[in-house]
């Protein structure tokens, strides 16, 4: 019998790890419905708007984001239908997805718990950095970059919420070894937040791009046809650590993959401008921080 | 400008940006001094964070304190990048990080 390859071994460890997670939430039906409706080319903006409008809290959040400086439209958008017509199905889907994930993983935290505000600031910052890099590279879908950055570390929240003792051990290991959180996760659990996040997104039937980027943001060369997207998120994650905005659970910084750096075609002299542009994107994106309250 | 939780914003501080409600209606403009009524309105409209102008009292008060803060940040950067000195890209990133963060503290 053939030996399992390293990828299969990690997958097996992830499977064993997530088997221990009890009661993991499913993707809300509303989100599943929207995903299916958007796949149908005959779906109208009004039909999707109708689904979203059934949830007043979600409707308010979507309108607040589309009217914020994140999009910077000069005129006020007052209905979800109007928002869909202006921004398109995919953008609205991204806003709904991020709001849904903030809701699904909401929890009251006590002093000493994993700092979720710092975590989400890191995530929003990563999305902002990804947009700044995307603009520099003329990447066509900046929205996709922002959402991939925003959600790249969601596996940490899954572990914090559904296996808190083990995750506390991970954080303790980060402190005692002064190492990256992914190294501590491998030491304690045999798999990382990237594997757990990708597994969750697979279960939720989210896009292949989001799944592979989440799985491969530490090693973008493994992301297959989504390599470019994963390379941008890989770099964005590192840039935002260098800017010391938010905190994803450790105080170290991973090394930028040489392959990714060459593939992106950036120069060392680009860092200063990327920091400035990321800072501007962060200011526009802070509206998302309101979602976590 | 800094972002604070609405609960932690204080009367007398100034909004650094226009504040809108959930539907994008303008509640008050940038530069407006926060009053108990405005803060209450923000809470009622579920606005959890506000951008406020940083006053002298919010930041370090003396050049000595600014210098101490810079030194602390630079030590943190050194710690974060420890062991990566041989990597040209990471060294360039570290230098850019030092420039960015010290410039931010100088503002």
Question: Can you give keywords for this protein?
Answer:
heterodimer; A: globular; B: 107 residues; alpha+beta; two-stranded antiparallel sheet; 43% helix
Write the layout of secondary structure elements.
The complex is a heterodimer of chains A (293) and B (107).
Chain A: H1 6-19, H2 29-39, H3 45-53, H4 56-66, H5 80-87, H6 89-104, H7 116-136, H8 142-151, H9 154-162, H10 164-177, H11 181-189, H12 193-203, H13 208-216, H14 227-242, H15 258-264, H16 271-285
Helix pairs in contact in A: 2-3, 2-6, 3-5, 4-6, 5-6, 6-8, 7-8, 7-14, 7-16, 8-13, 9-10, 9-12, 10-11, 12-13, 13-14, 14-15
Chain B: E1 2-5, E2 19-20, E3 26-28, H1 36-44, E4 49-52, H2 63-80, H3 88-106
Task: Provide a brief overview of the structure.
The complex is a heterodimer of chains A (about 290) and B (about 110). With about 290 residues, chain A is mainly alpha-helical.
Explain this structure to me?
- The complex is a heterodimer of chains A (293) and B (107).
- With 293 residues, chain A is mostly helical.
- Chain A is built from 16 helices and no strands.
- The model of chain A has no long low-confidence stretch (mean pLDDT 90).
- Chain B is α+β, with helices and mostly antiparallel strands.
- Helix content of chain B is 43%, strand content 12%.
- Chain B is built from 3 helices and 4 strands, in the order E-E-E-H-E-H-H.
- Chain B is elongated.
- The mean pLDDT of chain B is 83.
Unreliable runs of chain A, pLDDT <50, ≥5 residues? none
What is the straight-line distance between the termini of chain B?
10 Å
Average pLDDT metric of chain A: 90
What pattern of helices and strands is seen along the backbone of chain A? HHHHHHHHHHHHHHHH
The amount of helix of chain A comes to: 55-70%
In whole angstroms, the N-to-C terminal distance of chain A is 52 Å
Content of β-strand of chain A:
under 5%
CA-based gyration radius of chain B: 19 Å
Count of individual helical segments of chain A: 16
Name the quaternary structure.
Answer: heterodimer
The pLDDT mean of chain B sits at 83
User: How many strands appear in the DSSP assignment of chain A?
Assistant: 0
